[in-house]
Amino acid sequence: xxxxxxxxxxxxxxxxxxxxxxxxxxxxxxxxxxxxxxxxxxxxxxxxxxxxxxxxxxxxxxxxxxxxxxxxxxxxxxxxxxxxxxxxxxxxxxxxxxxxxxxxxxxxxxxxxxxxxxxxxxxxxxxxxxxxxxxxxxxxxxxxxxxxxxxxxxxxxxxxxxxxxxxxxx
Length: 170
Ligand code: FES
Ligand code: FES
Description:
Layout (H helix, E strand, L loop, with lengths): L8 E7 L2 E7 L5 H8 L18 E4 L2 E4 L12 E3 L13 H8 L9 H12 L7 H7 L11 H19 L4
Parallel strand pairs: 1-5
Antiparallel strand pairs: 1-2, 3-4, 3-5
Helix pairs in contact: 2-5
The structure holds FE2/S2 (inorganic) cluster (2 copies).
The site of one FE2/S2 (inorganic) cluster has 12 residues, from loops.
């Protein structure tokens, strides 16, 4: 609904499990809303044209480029950012720990998007093999690490999560 003043819209969305009501310009990118208005600066903006994956967030569980995805499109939907991956404050998700263990980043600018994309794959029902996993991650560009540590971290997490699942732990 428009509020009459400056053609803003009041929408409701869920971000990292919390319901949010926010006034937005219909053309406002989700990355701007997350970073500048909700203080969720984990989402990075690099190319700003949906080409690098740095700004990846999940909307209804699917990876989206927050630099071009409009906040308006996220109304009444669930949004997950890198901040929402951690199971609780101060506790890293195994994927985050694996990135640290494998030295899977240098500048870290791509890391949020990498984590969110990999999280989407690892928590889906996908049975992607190693090549499929690499293909899935191909939309996320890193200029620093040469990708091998990143792939190693994701593969290690997949193994750890399977072991954890087999032992009945979540
Ligand atoms: S900043 Fe959005 S895809 Fe590059
Ligand atoms: S760690 Fe620098 S761009 Fe990936």
